[in-house]
Amino acid sequence: MNREWVTLTGVSLLVILLQFLFIDKIAIVGISADIVLIPISAIAFQYGRMKGMVYGFSVGFLLDIMTGFWGVNALAKTIAGFIWGSFYVDSKPLIGWYQRQYLQVFLFGAIFHFAVLSGLNYAHLSSSIGQFIFKYVLGQTAYTFVFTYLFAMYFWNRKR
After folding, report:
1. Under a CB-based contact definition with an 8 Å cutoff, are residues 37 and 152 in contact?
2. Residue 16 within any structural domain of the chain
3. Theoretical Cys-Cys bridge with 76: which of 4, 41, 116, 136, CB 3.0 to 4.6 Å?
4. Considering Cα of 119, then 122, then 123, then 126, what sign does the dihedral take?
5. 69: exposed, middle or buried (Cβ count in 10 Å: 0-12, 13-18, 19+)
6. If DSSP codes are grouped into helix, strand and coil, which group holds residue 34?
7. Is 77 exposed, middle or buried (CB count within 10 Å of its CB: 0-12, 13-18, 19+)?
């Protein structure tokens, strides 16, 4: 169990570093992907709600410390971990999921995540609800989904 959490901590730090050094630099029209959601979803699918929420909160809180928006990332990522963990089945670890199932459930949780995150961070910047939904919620979800799709292609297509 301890080795598992050390590995998760290492993966988290690597993903956060990748997020800040690379992903944030390739923003499109002010929209950037949030690849930190990928390991949160994988943990929640693999271990369930509680671990998904704890992991999401921990990573979100670390991001809050780094960005200065206290509580926003922690709340949004905890909600996402809860949603994804709700699809956990004891007898079916992540490797038992079909790629399409994982992507559909990821998309569902990501929409809720970005609705909360964007609602708290960017709602005052939008001139209309349509702009808010299309630019911040759906735009960030779609951009993050591209990276999640690449992860899923690698994860499900590699030799075992």
Report:
1. no
2. no
3. 116
4. negative
5. middle
6. coil
7. buried
The answer to whether position 113 is within a domain reads yes
Distance between start and end Cα atoms, the chain = 23
Evaluate whether 81 touches 56 at the Cβ level (below 8 Å).
yes
The predicted pLDDT at position 159 comes to 47
Give a yes or no: residue 23 inside a domain.
Answer: no
Burial class (CB in 10 A: 0-12, 13-18, 19+), 37: buried
Q: What is the tally of structural domains in the chain?
A: 1
pLDDT, tens digit, 9 for 90 and up, residues 86-123: 888 776 665 666 777 888 888 999 999 888 888 877 76
In this structure, which amino acid lies at residue 156? Answer: W
Q: CA nearest 118: which of 24, 32, 22, 9?
A: 32
Q: Is residue 152 part of a domain?
A: yes
Q: Which value, to the nearest 10 degrees, does the dihedral of the CA atoms of residues 109, 111, 113, 118 take?
A: 180
Give the range of the structural domain holding residue 100, as residue numbers without chain letter. 35-157
